[in-house]
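Lecture notes, part 5. Sequence design as translation. It can be helpful to think of inverse folding as translation between two languages: the language of shapes and the language of residues. The source text, in structure tokens, appears below.
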């Protein structure tokens, strides 16, 4: 047999253990899990913060810092430069291992008192109101980005510039409200567009220019609703659309959503250059099972977003080799259960550690060896203790399981897990997880749906006006540079809070449940990632998609 059937001890749903994945468990020396991969992903991503930005102070210097860690975060927060300095010693927060007590209980004590950096990312300028920003400049309320500049409200972006409201976009400039778009310029309200210019409302288009409300096009220009126009006729027709009006724009959104469901030919998955792999949004992957948004990875299972992962099993937002149960890690090797660690090796159960090896159950260590619960040991002492600790954890049936929900840095409802795998407060608390009761908002201001409908009617001083999101009641402002951008491109003011807009753009990217179907053209059975409630009419196998579209 090539697979093993089991029942998840948490959600009680059946799940399958592939033999290729079972080999990885054996290599990593951990048992086959008793939970399905969906439940394990929820646990992992509960440690991946998607909180609201807030001001606080460094527990070391008192300096004002901006963080997405919530007010209920149990540990001290330091500015990153302070955290990496010699002004404090993580070993001072250590303790001896007590074999009369459970491991996670002792780990929690070390975690709660050990300082953590207030955010991720380095080498950025004027990006104080951003998180997980690497080598960026002038970015505001963005998350997870690399080499970006003059960006607002971006999420998972690389080499993007002068854009607002872009999600999972690479090499995109002067664009707005785009998701999964690449190497494009002056693009608006588009999904899955590559090498496109001066266009709006595109879906699955390649190398098009000056196109509007189009789909499945390749190498075209001057098209509206997939119909060709002469250049002069095109611009005359485009002039009749009121893209500067929020009400008219919403009508176009609804019309285009109907077109996407009714007319677009959807490929069964969006994998590119993959070999012997299953999942969606994979690029240049080989032998990857049940994985999503992975790039240049191989011989791995259950990946959710990551790059260059090899022999990795269960990971979220990770770059690693030979690793198990990893979240937001970079360049680890031979590790088991790690969260927000970088360049660590031969270690297990680490939280926010950097360049450590042969460490176990440690928090906030940098360039250390042979430590357990942040206490230093000799090599021989370490090896002897580790054997006993692992034996105890095996006996307690917790070895090879991820950190409990109770050790997450904040509420599940303010994590990436809630964005991808929405859960109820009751379900999370039943697993002893954290759920943050957000205070009722009583801000004074104008409702987002009551702001001027047309961008030309917005005054110069509107940036001083508080706007209240009609869905969440959260307060937000239109920043001066943001207003300039909207005016330059004739974009009406958004009505919803930036985080709500980001989560809405993410929804098409959060489908990790495969569905059985048949190709609309050849009737061959296919596995696709479009839920029935989307009512997509034309889903095709790869062969038919290439024939009909390309």
């Amino acid at each position: 047999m090539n697979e093993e059937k089991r029942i998840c001890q948490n959600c009680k749903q059946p799940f399958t253990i592939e033999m290729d994945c079972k080999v990885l468990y054996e290599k990593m020396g951990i048992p086959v899990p008793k939970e399905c991969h969906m439940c394990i992903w929820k646990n992992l991503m509960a440690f991946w913060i998607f909180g609201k930005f807030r001001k606080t102070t460094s527990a070391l210097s008192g300096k004002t810092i901006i963080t997405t860690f919530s007010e209920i975060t149990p540990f001290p927060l330091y500015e990153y430069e302070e955290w990496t300095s010699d002004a404090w010693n993580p070993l001072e927060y250590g303790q001896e291992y007590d074999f009369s007590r459970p491991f996670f209980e002792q780990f929690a004590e070390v975690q709660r008192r050990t300082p953590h950096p207030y955010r991720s990312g380095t080498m950025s300028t004027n990006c104080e109101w951003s998180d997980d920003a690497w080598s960026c400049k002038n970015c505001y309320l963005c998350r997870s980005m690399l080499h970006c500049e003059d960006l607002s409200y971006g999420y998972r972006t690389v080499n993007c510039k002068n854009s607002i409201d872009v999600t999972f976009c690479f090499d995109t400039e002067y664009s707005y409200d785009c998701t999964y778009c690449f190497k494009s310029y002056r693009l608006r309200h588009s999904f899955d567009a590559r090498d496109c210019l001066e266009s709006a409302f595109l879906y699955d288009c390649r190398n098009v220019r000056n196109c509007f409300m189009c789909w499945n096009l390749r190498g075209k220009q001057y098209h509206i609703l997939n119909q060709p126009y002469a250049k002069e006729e095109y611009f005359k027709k485009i002039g009749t659309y009121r893209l500067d009006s929020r009400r008219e724009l919403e009508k176009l959104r609804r019309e285009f959503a109907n077109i996407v469901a009714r007319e677009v030919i959807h490929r069964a998955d969006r994998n590119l250059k993959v070999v012997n792999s299953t999942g969606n949004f994979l690029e240049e992957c080989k032998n990857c099972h049940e994985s999503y948004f992975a790039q240049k990875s191989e011989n791995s299972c259950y990946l959710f977003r990551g790059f260059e992962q090899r022999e990795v099993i269960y990971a979220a937002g990770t770059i690693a080799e030979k690793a198990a149960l990893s979240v937001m890690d970079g360049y680890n090797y031979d590790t088991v259960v790690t969260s927000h660690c970088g360049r660590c090796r031969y270690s297990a159960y680490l939280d926010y550690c950097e360049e450590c090896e042969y460490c176990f159950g440690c928090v906030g260590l940098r360039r250390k060896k042979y430590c357990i619960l942040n206490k230093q040991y000799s090599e021989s002492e370490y090896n002897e203790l580790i054997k006993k600790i692992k034996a105890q954890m095996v006996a307690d049936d917790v070895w090879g399981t991820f950190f409990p929900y109770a050790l997450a840095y904040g509420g599940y409802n303010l994590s990436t897990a809630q964005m991808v795998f929405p859960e109820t407060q009751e379900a999370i608390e039943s697993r002893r997880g954290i759920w943050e009761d957000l205070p009722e908002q009583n801000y004074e201001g104008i409702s987002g749906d009551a702001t001027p409908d047309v961008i030309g009617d917005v005054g110069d001083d509107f940036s001083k006006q508080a706007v209240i999101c009609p869905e969440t009641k959260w307060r937000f402002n239109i920043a001066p540079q943001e207003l300039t951008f909207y005016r330059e491109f004739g974009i009406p003011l958004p009505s919803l809070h930036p985080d709500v807009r980001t989560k809405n753009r993410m929804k098409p990217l959060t489908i990790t449940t495969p569905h059985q179907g048949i190709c609309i053209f050849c009737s061959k059975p296919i596995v696709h990632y479009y839920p029935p409630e989307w009512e997509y009419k034309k889903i095709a196998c790869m062969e038919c998609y290439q024939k009909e579209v390309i």
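The translated text above is only one of many valid answers, since several sequences can fold into similar shapes. The chain has three domains: 20-63+91-120+302-438, 131-264, 446-509.
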